[in-house]
């Protein structure tokens, strides 16, 4: 909720109104395991293939095993190193839509060539499933009209989760 205040400030919008879309929030806490890969493994073998998160904010504590990489806007993959006492915070697809593309959904992947097991416990903080996601009026100008049509987060979430399961049948 505190991070949403920062987002609202950055987007010049009312933080109380934005927070209202998270009452109650949709939250996920996942425990992920990435076995060590051989350092000579081909470049396109991932612990987690390149993707963006479909929600709003993802919060992750890093350890010293490493393996998380983020893609810069220019397309270069860079390591996200552990910085003690901090969290990695990724913007997801819904915040990208709300900001009318001003905040970028963070492409990321995991390649664990550390020789050690990697565990990750991301926390996903997403809007209420009844929320309609549309560009905030504070992000619209004559030069920057809405880039995204409104969508219902619950319906979008359902389609994303079903697509993931269909892929793995």
Describe the model.
- The chain is an alpha+beta fold and 169 residues long.
- It has four helices and twelve strands; from the N terminus they run ααβββββββαβββββα.
- It has helices at 2-10, 15-20, 93-98, 153-167; strands at residues 26-29, 32-34, 48-51, 57-61, 68-71, 77-79, 87-91, 108-110, 118-120, 123-126, 132-133, 151-152.
- Strands 1-10-4-7 form a four-stranded antiparallel beta sheet. The chain has a four-stranded antiparallel beta sheet with strand order 3-8-5-6, with no helix packed on it.
- The longest helix is centred in the last third of the chain and has 15 residues, at 153-167.
- The mean pLDDT is 91.
Helix content: 10-25%
Q: What is the spatial order of strands in the main beta sheet?
A: 1-10-4-7
Shape by Cα distribution: elongated
Q: Which residues sit in consecutive blocks of at least 5 with pLDDT less than 50?
A: none
Question: How far apart lie the N and C ends?
Answer: 36 Å
Computed Rg: 17 Å
Total number of β-strand segments?
A: 12
Report a brief summary of the structure.
With 169 residues, the protein is of the alpha+beta class. It is built from four helices and twelve strands, in the order H-H-E-E-E-E-E-E-E-H-E-E-E-E-E-H. The chain is elongated and about 50 Å long.
